[in-house]
Amino acid sequence: MKKTLALLAAATALTAVIGVSAYSSLLGPVSGGGNLAHLLSGADTEQAPVILAGGHDDERGNKRLRRGDDDHGRYGEHDDDDDDDDDDDGGNARGQSNPAPAGTVAPPKNGLFGTGTPKVQVN
Amino acid sequence: MKSLLAALALTTALTLPSIASARPVTLTTTLKDYGGNGAYVALYVTDATGAYAGSLWMAGGKSKYYQHLSDWYRATNGNRAEIDGITGASVGAGRTLKITLDLADALFDAGYELHIDAAVEDMRDSPNEVAVPLTSAGAGKATRGRRYIDSFSYNF
Question: Where is the signal peptide (chain B) (predicted)?
């Protein structure tokens, strides 16, 4: 009887461990370690919500740009520099790298441009 | 001496049209105070048949977000070669992006249209936010956007 109970307890513990692992992997990386205690405590509620990269809504115009899991800061003009530092994966899911910034190479030869260098200003 | 002059005349004749066939055009895009992070903005051109002709500017440097500029992305398949050398930072809410480009004269009064797609983090994507015919008469006239863009205009 004791042996049966011990086996039952071991199986229950093993199932719980597997279940939590699977749940964690569904949620993706969680800042702060992503362990069980962290998940259950509801910590990081002030952080941006965990986003599944590449998620799509069906309706045209109802899609939303969301930061990827590999980013540690919200993207935007004011923090682009920080983002660039931790975003050396370089590109999108199709393995395409980021484009060359203006001024580093000539504009594309698509017949739209003359020979002048683009000038940009943000006010 | 005569052959030298002839060569000079020929090179001048060949050079002048290329100089005259493009001019500086300033594209001014002012964003609304939509209360979100910096916007990714793609400016591109379609020809008289509505086919994609090329990109003029990409505001936002990370290619992984370009799929949210959905009309541009569909036309280019996200090809970075389309925007190499014409890419800058994303544009904050309420800010004005002013780009001066040396653009071919052939773009004006020939049925070309300039389109703008915009996307903002955690907000709805906005393809074809602005669509404006490129004409001499349209220079200096402001066009309102649908969601994130307050106004767009181009000036020679």
Answer: 1-22
